[in-house]
Amino acid sequence: MGKEGRCSFLKKRTKKLLFLRSRAVARVSDRRRGALLFFKKEVLALLFLLFISPCHAEDPALAGLRAPDYDSVAATVTDLAAHRHPRARAIITALRDGTLYAPDEGPGLYILGPAGTTDAATGAPVSGLDPDSLSKVQQNNRVRIAVAGALALLDLSAPDAATRREAAEAMVAHPDSGLLPALTTALAQETDPPAHAAMVLARAAALLSSGASGQSQQAQLDAVAALRGEGNQQARAILLGIPNPPPAVRDAARSAIAAIDLQLRLWSVGQGVFYGASLGSVLLIAALGLAITFGVMGVINMAHGELMMIGAYVTWLVQGATTAAWPGQAGLGLALSVPAAFLACGALGIAIERGLIRFLYGRPLETLLATWGLSLVLQQAVRSLFGPTNVSVITPAFMSGAVKLGGIEITLNRLVIIVFAAVVMLALTALLRLTPLGLQMRAVTQNRRMAALMGIRTPRVDALTFGLGSGVAGLAGVAISQIDNVSPNLGQGYIIDSFMVVVFGGVGNLWGTLAGALSLGIANKILEPLAGAVLAKIIVLVLIILFIQRRPRGLFPLRGRAVES
Amino acid sequence: MRLPWRPLSGADWAAVCVLSGGSALALLSLLPEGSPLHVPQFAVGLAGKYLAYAILAVAVDLVWGFAGILTLGHAAFFALGGYAMGMYLMREIGTRGVYGNPNLPDFMVFLSWDHLPWYWYGFSHLPFALLMALLAPGALAGCFGWLAFRSRVSGVYLSIITQALTYALMLAFFRNDMGFGGNNGLTDFKDVAGANLHQPGTRAALLALTALALAFCLLASRAILGSRFGALLVAVRDAESRTRFIGYRPEHIKLLVWVYSALIAGVGGAFYVIQVGIINPGEFAPGNSIEAVIWVAVGGRGTLWGPVLGALLVNLGKTLFTGLLPELWLYALGLLFILTTLFLPRGVAGLWRAAKPAGAAEVTPEMTSADHEAVP
User: Fold this and answer.
1) What is the pTM of this model?
2) Interface with A, mutate which of B107, B198, B337 (most A CBs under 10 A)
3) Lowest CB count within 10 Å: A286, A556, B33, B264, which one?
């Protein structure tokens, strides 16, 4: 970096400035051209009226498509659709796809399809045309918008309800008062509720659009009310852009905008809570294993993140194996990788405990260092085995996509992870409460020496606890593989946050971890839109550091004798 | 006053070795190219970097080896000292930057700022920058330590929040809005106090100065640890509750050594930046702090000369490994952590003392307090 980097940056900047300047110049000349075009348009319209002669066998509705100015093309497209021209769909689709051609001289329009050339007006095949004498009917953005609107209008009478709804939604995006009669007709015939709602909105948008100043005030007020009921960004944009509204409409629009703003803000808080819960559930599942080992053994396992990373790699391997055996079954691979990652990481955890950690009991700070060293070795080992780059874990079809709940968009993979984290949390609670192993673990947590005197084999409990914690880390890896890049550095991104959860929640019980994870996740996501992602993270970290001063052992501290050390 | 600390006698010795070694290297580098004893420039730079790291290691050892606080965030103080020095060096560039702006460093011109932020005032003067290289880390350590020790945050909790501290600072310094150069940090320095930084003479002088600073830190720390305060410090390390019940205030003792250690780390950072020629937010990375801890562990905590030796050995190893077998370095570093904690809990210094017969009674940190909790 340094000098060279900065120099090249400078050059780029200069270039960009020059580019902007040239753009500005171009814009000025564009405007001039616009004026010229305007003239041309008038003249052409005159010429059009003068020279259009009935002797041509051409359909007059199509002639405008050959006009050299884009406005006439756009108007013709809209007319074709509004008057239900029998060939409208074919011609407009051809125009959109760039297969509509006009001869350089004389009348006629042709569609150059893959099957051959056809006459646009009749659909009959044509032969013997010189392709060099044809030129493509050009489009600009205005024409493209008209094309989209026209196709949407045609779709309004499609037999499929979903197509009709999508068509209406497209018309909300580009309202055009010319489409009003067609919309009113379609609305009267519509029976499908979602399509009907979309059409009401589209009609409201058209009523308030620039060309609709002749509409009655009551109709416009109704339209404002309809948009207010919809309450989304699009409705807000339409309300903001009403051209020259009468006072009553303007006031109604203003109050509607205020109402929509409030509603949108509430929804965005709701969205923040969902994102926060999603982040929190990832943190929860990452921190649960850490909390177990820390609670029972007083050991901070710095290699926890690397165990998560290994869990993600196990997912990748299992998925690779299952898709090789049964192609297209990504979901099956993911389901199988849950137990596989748990067992693999659990076994690795037991090996770590037996081979390293048990020699360091009573020296928690040195355990921290040794496990940090282990994390470096594991990271480098994975890097040597599978390469330093990301590997791709497939998200199965049932987990991709999103559903809309009011104004909240819920991505399915995150929803599945929330559910997964809840299941893991409940399973762990049950294991701690209901099984003999859980009883022994709780006994050792509360008073190790007393538990040993009661006949609990504490070394065995330690090994199993560490195995359990590591297995849960593996499960976290499976979850994270669905939302994040799987690379040897995966663990690093989560380890500090998981520590924070454990420190914040305390190690008294798993509910502390849950509370810690959710509050951290939600605080982060609520702060993010206000302060930006990085600053939000810094604020949360500082808040935790301050919080620890008030409650040095977290929200739910461990009570009893074990605390005094 | 009688000095009760056997290991401390090593500190004088280490100071002499560092000073003579550093000055010798500096002088030899000034010999003409062809001379058989000539030391190349890159070796001077490396030696200066290692000595700056050794200063950081001494700082970590003061809190970990003598006060039992495992810090995973000392790189924060090191980097703050470095940034203070870097800001001075940035201002020294003056109109020789790419933009040639006499009032603003290049990166601010690049961000189209029109005036210097207030916290950059004064950094055109070396004494002020040196003062800030001490004050900034000292103030941060003072606030953090006062809050943490007062509410008796200890053990792994403290370790983890020190890590959070340096992580938060890293994220903050990565932001361009902070006014510290963002991602790129501060670099492209030209000269210090009028002397060209790329001249062999300047570099040799800087190396000698770094050695002098390290020697001074060693001697000052030895004097502090040999005093009554040093005895209290070890008392807090080995039996905090007992010290409190006798009537001392462990939080005050910890806070003092914590701030003192941060000051030393800041000095190390200042010397590091001036010789390495760049400081960026990566220096705040939690991994760097933990690496500093391993230097101390390898050298031997609880002695003052151990960390110096550890920092030199590990970094020499790192330079050799990353040059020859880059992919093996992380294995080596990881194994170093594991093997040191398993087999050499007292580091190389421990080996040295084990080899000497009839050593003084060992003081084992944490063991005494954690013993009754220990797993059989």
Assistant:
1) 0.75
2) B337
3) B33
